[in-house]
Write a structure and sequence with these properties.
Length: about 210
């Protein structure tokens, strides 16, 4: 398959990039320069009308939404064991975590990073002040889950939501209370960061912080 990832370093595309490396999928990288507004240029909007990364182009077909692409990639590579199949007793938890991260936690980060979106420039302080405790409440809940049934979200073995959660934890590294202030989350982050694919990801995206 001919595969190209459109990405920006450290952005939501990181989840897809990490899985491409973890699953050993041959791919090309196309950096989208946010400082030049390339994500809103007509050529890019033709790939993703939302003007966001990631976009994964596979054999000429462009796909967007990080979580959806991540689920699809893991299903294409069942040998890696990152996606419990239908009938697996972990399947319901797997889907629940993917949707919780995509529908609850990631949108809070969207508001944190783009605080003018919900109610304009005049309200950015209020939006951020509202977001931080809600993100922290997520960390509290997820930490309790990991402490009770970890070390990974589904128990003994990593799966796609652990990669997703690690990306989201990284986004909180400069927040007043980073995710790693919670011990079970810190332990998960350490485990995930120890994967060789994480080092490769950092090298390819030119990242250094939170290594
Ligand atoms: N729900 C989308 C959100 C993607 C998203 O918000 N990406 C951000 C980077 S983390 C982006 O492209 N921002 C540029 C912009 O909105 O102009 C997904 O998960 O793929």
């Amino acid at each position: 398959m001919d595969t190209t990832l459109y990405y920006s370093p450290g952005a939501a595309s990181l989840l897809v990039h990490w899985l491409l490396l973890e699953l050993d999928v041959p791919h090309a990288l196309q950096r989208v320069d946010f400082s030049r507004g390339e994500q809103k240029a007509p050529a890019f909007l033709a790939l993703n009308p939302h003007g966001t990364v990631p976009v994964l182009v596979v054999d000429g077909v462009a796909r967007h939404e990080a979580a959806a692409i991540a689920l699809w990639l893991a299903e294409q590579h069942p040998q890696a064991g990152l996606a419990p199949v239908p009938g697996d007793p972990r399947r319901a938890d797997y889907l629940q975590w993917m949707f919780e991260l995509a529908n609850v936690l990631q949108p809070l980060f969207r508001q944190w990073w783009y605080p003018a979106e919900p109610a304009g420039e005049a309200c950015t302080e209020a939006v951020r002040a509202h977001c931080a405790p809600r993100i922290e409440a997520c960390w509290e809940r997820i930490d309790a889950r990991l402490a009770a049934a970890g070390p990974y979200l589904l128990g003994e073995a990593p799966s796609v939501p652990d990669f997703y959660l690690t990306m989201l934890m990284r986004w909180a590294r400069h927040m007043p209370r980073p995710a790693t202030a919670w011990p079970a989350l810190a332990a998960l982050a350490a485990r995930m960061k120890a994967r060789p694919s994480f080092a490769a990801l950092y090298a390819r995206e030119g990242l250094a912080e939170w290594a």
